[in-house]
Amino acid sequence: MTREENTAKLAQLRSETEALVKDYNDAIQNGKFEDASKADKAMTEKINEYTATVRDMCFEDCKNTDNPMLTAVTTLSFVTIGVKDEQKGDDKVPVRAIVDKERQIDLLKLHKYCGSIGANENWSSIAQKMNFLLTAQKAVDLGIDPKAVNDSYAMSEIAREFDMGKNPTSKTNLLKTLQTVITAMLGEQYKATSHDVNFLMSVYSKKNRKALTVTCANHRYFRNYLAEVCHRIVTGKTYELDFKTKKDN
């Protein structure tokens, strides 16, 4: 389909989704929950089709540039639609509305769409190796035997065989390790900093619901974090910190 045809398709899908949202709200407010469920299912299908269409348009735009990887990390995301429920009125009846939502570009899907992107076609496997190394180091940091990580971690054979040097996750070598991945993605002219390392280590792992358990990033999330690092590098932006602020008296 041409871009004009895809644009027209998006407009049609949004219009159809808006009609389904109206049907859904009417059904909820009149207690017709089976009708609401049908509208919700149809709505989800329309939104998924909208997202797939706008994603492919984004991928095509990236593919048609001299450097799809650079274009993707500079753009970072595309806008699709979703729905949001809010409780309104004295009876707090849920009312659904369409909202715009940003979706980060999946670099691996773009890689497959284009045939190959990046300065090194094996960038994804190199990123996997760094992810593995950070996970093994996290085990050591928590007093856990890293053998289970070493023996069973899921990654490609290219990743498993890639050499990142001696002590790649030490404090003195971590920037060099990150730079290896950034170079594979963008090329040698793009340089990571200690701030990029600190950002990556800040978002890399999180508390699991299970007591005394930490969850490390899977490969998809890790690629997304790396894309944000690349975005900062190519745009010159700075990191931000979100925290609870005190209220004025």
Please characterize this protein's 3D structure.
It is a single chain. By secondary structure, the protein is of the alpha+beta class. The protein has two domains: 112 residues; 113 residues, no CATH class. Helix content is 58%, strand content 12%. The protein has ten helices and four strands, in the order αααββααααααββα. The strands form two sheets. It has a two-stranded antiparallel sheet with strand order 1-2. A hairpin with a 4-residue loop joins strand 1 and strand 2. Helix 5 packs antiparallel against helix 8 and helix 9 packs antiparallel against helix 10. The chain is globular, with a radius of gyration of 22 Å. The chain starts with a helix and ends in a 14-residue tail after the last helix. The mean pLDDT is 96.
What percentage of the residues does DSSP assign to strands (E)? 5-15%
Work out the radius of gyration.
22 Å
Distance between the termini: 58 Å
Q: Encode the helix/strand succession as letters.
A: HHHEEHHHHHHEEH
Low-confidence stretches: none
Tally of strands: 4
- How many domains, as an integer? 2
Report the principal-axis shape. Answer: globular
Structural class: alpha+beta
Number of helices: 10
